[in-house]
Amino acid sequence: MKTSDFFYELPQELIAQTPMEPRDASRLMVIHKEDGRLEHKIFRDLIDYLNPGDCLILNDTRVIPARIYGVKKDTGAVVEFLLLKQKENNIWECLCKPGKRAKVGTTFSFGDGLVDATVEDVAEDGNRFVRFHCDSKEIYNILDKIGKMPLPPYITEELKNGERYQTVYSRELGSAAAPTAGLHFTEEMLEKIKAKGVNIGYVTLHVGLGTFRPVKVDDVTKHKMHSEHYQLSKETADLINATKKNGHKVISVGTTSTRTLESVATKYGCIQEDEDDTSIFIYPGYEFKCIDALVTNFHLPESTLIMLIAAFAGYDTVMNAYKEAVNERYRFFSFGDCTLIL
């Protein structure tokens, strides 16, 4: 398949700039993959499609306020640093803008002298490896004081409350972007889901900025996928296996949860406890090994994420659903509306 096969026209005004209030008031398009039937609902109606004994798998990663601004010690020039991944102790892989100002050996000051950092190396893709001159755990406290949420480039409005770019169940610090399908859940809604007899399990996949990188090759199969770190606990693995054994459904919330579960199932041929990095690339032709249903937002044209859902629901079904979503004026992307694919 060609990357251009996954293009669709999207009016700029349908890209959501602010989150919906309350969270579960966003719209929900229910996509029936067997016959392509579409239903238009509200997100809180999701519970009507869940049955006792099913399990909902959520990604509990928490976004780091990872966008900080450094002042070059010798010239006073300002450079934006986006912390992507902690490599070891206090060395971080960072995206720097403008990169030409962040040369190896250059030292920057952050937060009016709160912490200094030195560029130690440059990666093949131009990212910088930066050593922060502080205790490796202290960096999180510093980011809480001076960091800003690393919102996607298509969101141009400032976010007034940083917690709205976190899920209500986020707890494991490490992401450069939110697992956005989970942003629609409220604590009250999760309690109602549990009360119905639906089990909830958690995985952790730290979302990297690679999730926003465009596919730059014409042939989909030639695309090189970014790598992200995941963790699947024994408790969640046991829950999934029991759910399957009893004939119930595993509903994955988001493409990140999906990539975690399918990575483990592909690696071992079953679901079991695991921690690893994954660069799994799911596109049409892939045979799903774990999930039975998927909750996910509307994704960018020609992105790896729309390719994943096309693999799950069928190419024609997905492209038709997106055309319908545009016609019905759904809100798109991170702060936008949601789909349930059954």
What is the element layout, followed by pairings?
Layout: E1 27-31, E2 38-42, E3 55-59, E4 61-63, E5 67-72, E6 78-88, E7 91-97, E8 107-110, E9 115-122, E10 128-132, H1 138-146, E11 172-175, H2 187-195, E12 199-205, E13 228-232, H3 234-245, E14 250-253, H4 255-268, E15 274-278, E16 293-297, H5 304-313, H6 315-327, E17 338-341
Verbal overview:
By secondary structure, the chain is an alpha/beta fold. It is built from six helices and 17 strands. It has helices at 138-146, 187-195, 234-245, 255-268, 304-313, 315-327; strands at residues 27-31, 38-42, 55-59, 61-63, 67-72, 78-88, 91-97, 107-110, 115-122, 128-132, 172-175, 199-205, 228-232, 250-253, 274-278, 293-297, 338-341. It has a nine-stranded mixed beta sheet with strand order 2-1-17-16-14-3-12-13-15. Strand 6 and strand 7 form a beta hairpin. Helix 5 crosses helix 6. The relative contact order is 0.21. The mean pLDDT is 96.
Beginning-to-end CA distance, first to last residue: 24 Å
For the largest sheet, list the strands in their spatial order: 2-1-17-16-14-3-12-13-15
Query: Structural class, judged by helices and strands?
Result: alpha/beta
Strand element count? 17
What kind of sheet is the major sheet?
9 strands, mixed
Quaternary form: single chain
Count of discrete alpha- or pi-helical segments spanning 4 or more residues: 6
Residue share in helix:
10-25%
